[in-house]
Amino acid sequence: SAAVSDESVAGDSGVFEASRPSKGDLGLSMNLETAQVQVKLRYSSTDDLLHVGIERARNLAALFIPEGRKVCIKAALLPSISNVLCTFCTRAITDLTKPTFGETFRIAISKSKLLTKTLQVNIWAVDRENHEDCLGSAQVSMADFKTSTTSVKWYNVLSFHFMQPEVKRPVSASPRAHHLKQESEISSMNS
HSE on the CB side for 172, CA within 13 Å? Predict the structure, then answer.
């Protein structure tokens, strides 16, 4: 167009300042910040126990939780240790605007083994029939954990929403599969 925008003038001067997105912008209206979970870690050397606190979560809307679902958090210390229970689950909550769990779990493990582990933290949606869907995951490397102090940190949750497979059509309905079958039949006739 013949009109000169503020952005093009700024661009021509070698300085570019993007215009602010409107309030109707999809990203802002949905407030799609990364979902996070707050985990508290404390190690007790006297009894070789790792205390794992699942404290709170925030920005859960970024996980696209279906309406009417509760949320719980399941965690596991991996790789697992034989004969030791290293998995646990919080209660399911309904308040997704300020989700607070405040639950602590104890895992018996020596300090030397602890530093080779990873704490996997999964966010689950639970429906009325208690069917569960894993929405996302965070991983906490125990190699980075200083056992002499208590750690309270927020960890980003990788959303599985965008990793869901697309609905697949039956093979017979795919023109490409039919074409490959014909090529295969032709090549077998020629040999």
Answer: 0
Alpha helices for 22-88 (secondary structure H): 26-30
Distances (CA, A) of 175 to 79, 100, 165: 44, 51, 20
Which is nearest to 136 in space by CA: 164, 104, 106? Answer: 164
Judge contact between 153 and 139, C-beta under 8 A: no
How many Å apart are CA 175 and CA 172, to the nearest integer? 8
Q: Could you tell me the pLDDT band of residue 167, with boundaries at 50, 70 and 90?
A: low
Q: CA dihedral defined by 112, 80, 141, 70, rounded to 10 degrees?
A: -140
Burial class (CB in 10 A: 0-12, 13-18, 19+), 102: exposed
pLDDT band per the 50, 70, 90 thresholds, residue 161 = confident
- Rounded CA-CA distance 19/52 in Å is 44
As a whole number of angstroms, the distance between CA 164 and CA 133 comes to: 12
In whole angstroms, give the CA distance from residue 152 to residue 42.
9
**Burial class of residue 132 in the structure, from the number of CB atoms within 10 Å of its CB (0-12 exposed, 13-18 middle, 19+ buried):** middle
Position of tokens 């009325």? Answer: 128
What is the pLDDT at residue 2?
52
